[in-house]
C-alpha cells in the first residue's frame, strides 16, 4: 500500500494557530483552486486517515466535493474510542472505519457505530498497531493508496514505523510560532541523527499562495 502524508503547514512547520485550534483558519489563505487540488488528490486514493483531534476540532466530512463518487474511505484511529457519535463522518452516507484497541474498545459504542453502517475494528492492545492496521486496510478493505492528513502525533506514528512512502506539503508563507503548537510530526522525536527518517526531494514548485513540496522515502 502506498501511503502519502499530505499536509498544509506554515514556514515553521505548524499545522494550526495553537494547540486545540482548528486547521480551518489556515485554509482561508488558500484559493478555491488550491482547495480543489486537495480534494482532487482525495479522488485518487481509496482511503483518508485523520486523528481523533481533527474530528473533534474540525468535524470534517473528508469527502471529495469536486468529483462525484470519488470519496475515499475515512479512517480514524483512536486508542480509547474518544470520538463524538454525532461527528459528520458518522452521520452521513460515506464509508468510515473507526480503529481502536483491545484495552480501549467500548462494546456499546462499537455497536452504535456499526448500527450506523460504519466499520469498527480492533488493532493493537493498548496502542493502535499501525503496521498491522495498514496491512488490514489493504487486505480487508482493498485500500492500496492511503492519504494521511494527520496531526503531529498521528503523523509521528506513521513516520516512526516507516509507513510513509511520500510527503506532500502545501507550505504557506507565514510564521506562526508557539512552543506548544502542533507541528508536522510531534511524538517522542529522535535525539540521534542515525534514527531520523530520510526522504529525497522530488519537487519544489512555488505557487501563488503556497509552495508545493513533494518528498519520497529515501532507499
TrEMBL record:
The keyword NADP applies. Gene3D superfamilies: Dihydrofolate Reductase, subunit A. The keyword Protein transport does not apply. Pathway: Cofactor biosynthesis; riboflavin biosynthesis. Keywords: NADP, Oxidoreductase. One of its GO terms (molecular function) is 5-amino-6-(5-phosphoribosylamino)uracil reductase activity. Signal peptide: none annotated. One of its GO terms (biological process) is riboflavin biosynthetic process. Residues 4-200 form the Bacterial bifunctional deaminase-reductase C-terminal domain. This is Bifunctional deaminase-reductase domain protein. It comes from Paenibacillus curdlanolyticus YK9. The lineage of its organism: Bacteria, Bacillati, Bacillota, Bacilli, Bacillales.
Amino acid at each position: 500500500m502506498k501511503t502519502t502524508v499530505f499536509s498544509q503547514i506554515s514556514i515553521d512547520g505548524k499545522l494550526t494557530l495553537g494547540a486545540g485550534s482548528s486547521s480551518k483558519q489556515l485554509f482561508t489563505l488558500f484559493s478555491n483552486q488550491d482547495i480543489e487540488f486537495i480534494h482532487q488528490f482525495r479522488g485518487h486514493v481509496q482511503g483518508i486517515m485523520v486523528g481523533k483531534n481533527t474530528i473533534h476540532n474540525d468535524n470534517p466530512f473528508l469527502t471529495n466535493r469536486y468529483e462525484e463518487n470519488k470519496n475515499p474511505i475515512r479512517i480514524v484511529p483512536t486508542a480509547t474510542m474518544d470520538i463524538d457519535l454525532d461527528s459528520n463522518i458518522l452521520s452521513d452516507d460515506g464509508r468510515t472505519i473507526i480503529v481502536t484497541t483491545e484495552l480501549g474498545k467500548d462494546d456499546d459504542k462499537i455497536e452504535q457505530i456499526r448500527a450506523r453502517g460504519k466499520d469498527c475494528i480492533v488493532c493493537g492492545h493498548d496502542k493502535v498497531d499501525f503496521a498491522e492496521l495498514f496491512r488490514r486496510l489493504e487486505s480487508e478493505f482493498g485500500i492500496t493508496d492511503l492519504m494521511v492528513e494527520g496531526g503531529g502525533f498521528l503523523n509521528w506514528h506513521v513516520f516512526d514505523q516507516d509507513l510513509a512512502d511520500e510527503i506532500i506539503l502545501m507550505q504557506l508563507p507565514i510564521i506562526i510560532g508557539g512552543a506548544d503548537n502542533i507541528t508536522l510530526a510531534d511524538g517522542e522525536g529522535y535525539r540521534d541523527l542515525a534514527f531520523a527518517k530520510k526522504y529525497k526531494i522530488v519537487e519544489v514548485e512555488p505557487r501563488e499562495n503556497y509552495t508545493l513540496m513533494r518528498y519520497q522515502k529515501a532507499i
